[in-house]
Predict the 3D structure of the following.
Amino acid sequence: MNKQKPTRGASKKPIVESGKVGVSEPLTGFEARRRLEDITRLVSDWIWETDKNFNFIFVSDRVVEVLGRHPVEIIGQDFFELGTFTTGAGNKITPERRTPFRDISMKIKDRTGKEKCFLISGLPIFHPEKGSFEGFRGTVEDITLRQEAQEKLKKTNDELESRVMERTRELQDEINERKRAEVEVLAARDEAEAANQAKSRFLANMSHELRTPLNSIIGFSEVMKEGMFGALGDKRYEDYAQIITQSGQHLLALINDILDVSKIEAGELSLDYEDVDLRLLIRDCKQMMQKRAEKARIKVSSKVNGDVSTVYGDQLRFKQILLNLLSNSIKFTKPRGKVTIRAALGERGSVLITVEDTGIGIEEKDLKQVFKPFGQVKDILSRPHEGSGLGLSLAKSLAELHGGTLLLKSEIDRGTTVTVTLPSKKA
């Protein structure tokens, strides 16, 4: 090991002993350096000293722990060749510098070649008598782990900030998309409402215009069929008159249904409330559908519980509901099938009217479709039964207009049950 220079200017230090102030014995150069090293190792990793040419003349032993290099390897080396300064130009160390510096960053390679980060601080040394510059002495602090932690933290913060910004952009895009969607929905809703009102007005006007000549067709065909002004001659004329009458009546019923649907959608259909005799209502509807049922070879029966007497509502609309349900059941029930009408009291005095058949049934996936106006389960070109698809839709709307409900349960090849629940009094 190189011979190390003794510490300059070792001074006597006042001490307190048995209540008296005294002066300690002068320290040897070794003891002074040892004391200096003990103090500096508390605040740094290793200490150093250079001559006036910035060549190392002393390096503490702790450099072995930090860099894996022996002090002998560094003593005599140029200070500026120890590593690479990474500080800014405002705090740069130059060979001409004669002022103290503190915490100047430098990167120094250890024995393995790994680059480590340090903070270097130093004080200039001047001759006590001549005042000439003799070099620098100072400390070196290893901040590699701190620097790595800071870089890792910065990287994490940058990544987090990037993710936050990205998510913020995504949220903003989602908000903008939702706003656009809301605008489109509102525009579509307004357009649909306008179209629906236009459709309702058109259907109402057309229905009125069609019913007037249609009533004439039905009336004159009935006159011809009955032969009120004499025989028509050929039997085929009578058959034609019968067909004209039936077709006209069917078309008139369809037009009336369309008009009712339009009025309901427009909120213009009013109800005339009264106490309706339910037994009489069911009997009348059953009689009106009897010929159609007999022609289809279907048995129609009814059962009204003794505790049911009247229902409060519009008698004409109640009859319309029941006739539509009966018509559907007869239409979709095979010969020798059954259609049953039941009436009973429900919860809180409500009235339950049920129409049950043994018909072909409806698949579960098609249940919602049948309640749509003009909704048909099968394609219009392939379905075997005639009809507009307004029956169930109109019946449901009329029931709800009374404050009631209409529920449908069905099973393929087992039949369909439709239950109408009507409140005891006006909703």
